[in-house]
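Researcher: We plan to redesign the surface later, but first we want a full-length starting point. Tokens attached.
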């Protein structure tokens, strides 16, 4: 299992977490030379993590909660692997509510999974549509790109 072998498993409903997964994958491939697979948990809810050293888990947030399939993965045994967590939530992309989002959607959730010691976490912005019209968009792909480069450098050490 090489240190470059990476999987990004994500669950999305409005698309943003999938977009971030693709951005992270591109950065890790192009900038860091990693071998990356991206898995949509709706299509494959129980990916086989055995061949991967680095496991990214991404979820959107609705009604203050992680999506179910992504949340289930947090119960897994990741002994000997590098786990990285990211979420997408409209409040996380607003500087006024970012820290609160980190507390609620990352810190509080991870407290319930003490065995999971992620090497990196991030709460990115989200996009909310009502009847097809964008009502809020706090996404910042550049932030995702910069974070992915940082994490890639850390994982490659
Ligand atoms: C029904 C609904 C509930 C939402 N609840 C929250 C919330 O509790 N906190 C928040 O920050 N954003 C909330 N949002 C915004 C989502 O976080 C945003 O749509 C994000 O892009 C979801 O990730 P996804 O695009 O990967 O599904 C909500 C959006 C919808 C449609």
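Model: Full-length starting sequence:
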């Amino acid at each position: 299992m090489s240190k470059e072998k990476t999987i990004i498993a994500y669950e999305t409903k409005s698309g943003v977490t999938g977009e971030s997964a693709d951005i992270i994958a591109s950065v890790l491939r192009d900038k860091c030379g990693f071998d990356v697979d991206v898995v949509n948990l709706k299509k494959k809810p129980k990916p086989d993590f055995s061949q991967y050293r680095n496991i990214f888990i991404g979820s959107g947030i609705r009604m203050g909660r992680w999506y179910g399939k992504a949340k289930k993965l947090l119960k897994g045994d990741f002994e000997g692997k590098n786990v990285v967590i990211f979420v997408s939530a409209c409040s996380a992309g607003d500087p006024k509510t970012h820290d609160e989002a980190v507390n609620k959607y990352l810190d509080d959730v991870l407290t319930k999974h003490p065995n999971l010691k992620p090497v990196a976490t991030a709460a990115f912005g989200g996009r909310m549509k009502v009847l097809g019209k964008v009502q809020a968009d706090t996404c910042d792909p550049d932030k995702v790109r910069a974070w992915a480069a940082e994490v890639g450098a850390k994982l490659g050490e």
